[in-house]
What does this fold into?
Amino acid sequence: MFNLLEGHTSLSWIMRLQIALDAARGLEYIHEHTKTHYVHRDIKTSNILLDDAFRAKISDFGLSKLVGKTTDGEASATKVVGTFGYLAPEYLSDGLATSKSDVYAFGVVLFEIISGKEAIIRTEGMVTKNHERRSLASVMLSALRNSHDSMSMSSLKDYIDPNLMDLYPHDCVFKVAMLAKQCVDEDSILRPDMKQVVISLSQILLSSVEWEATLAGNSQVFSGLVQGR
It folds into this structure.
């Protein structure tokens, strides 16, 4: 087993999407299908492990927490733990861990899968040469504000992992980016739950596979995709 950060540069778009879907299903399971529900509290790419077939599993449940019923749903009051860059704003402010704080972290993971960048990135200031640290979520959200649909995603394209070598369906990448945007919404109520995320990723994966099939007749492009696997 190895983690997603170790192997992302060689992964094709389809593989990245399958990994995201596998991880989403694992997270949905602990949120919805265990007898007592849990929040993970430390969802990040380094806690997504890949087997030899590049199927993903969520690992490191050392910070996971049993959640109890509250008037607002299921939550657990706790000291803030986890990894900066993945922490939901309401979790940082009041220490209330919910399934929606896991959803926020998963949205950051989706941005990492698209961009190939880490959750906290160094950017060079425009006025000075000093480097500043910014969250990947804030950088990607800024790019998405200028991309209203998949046909006008030029501002987003600058943040897509160059290792993908333009071998991806633009509309599907845009849909994943918009899903990530919903996951990292400042208002936790507006974030989807993991069941909705799984449904969305399943549909996007199906569309991506159909896109790949249309390229099968183009041997040069298709061979590039196969090598990416």
Observations:
- The longest helix spans residues 13-33.
- DSSP finds nine helices and ten strands in the chain.
- The CA atoms of residues 72 and 189 lie 10 Å apart.
- Residues 66-73 have pLDDT under 50 and may be disordered.
